[in-house]
# Entry
Amino acid sequence: MATVGCTITQRFQFELNYAGRYEMDFDITELAALSADSMDAVQDFFADMDLDSIKTYYSTFEGLSNITVSKTKNVLHFGYDFSDLTALNASLNTAGSLGLQLGDVGDKFSVTNGIFKYDIGNFDENYPDSLAEVLFFVDYDILMNFAQEIESASGCSVLDDEKTIVMRGNFGDVVRNQEALKVEVSFKNE
# Structure
């Protein structure tokens, strides 16, 4: 992972019907500290951000509710409940208008024959090297918690609770190595 930069943490909570809650933290604390002579002088890069406009933007999506947006010094947090994977996919596909989308536009989440899939697309030769250089400063933590126990999973680690998967890494490495972030999860029959 990058030694100094920012971290995007995404948390997904899925119910049995794949409704749930999405939360994201965009933390640029370390990056902001580079521009200051002392910790007291660190600029708050989110100070002038209009949080109401983000909340209003997401409130226009069908299937989203309980939208929350907040910030602390150099950390932006937002989240919302989603009614199903269609609503979640729609909300994530348009996150690019806020500068928060990585990967291809399209359905990132799906369930086929009981297999849960997450795929943000391939970072292939169509992505410029300059993108990899910028994204080298962006680490990611993606956590997904499910209502049922996991039988098997690929492209991620399963935590000890057997209901949570995690992916951690650096987006610059993903782009540079032309990797894809793809996960498949099957569940135990209960």
Remarks:
- The mean pLDDT is 82.
- Residues 6-187 form one domain.
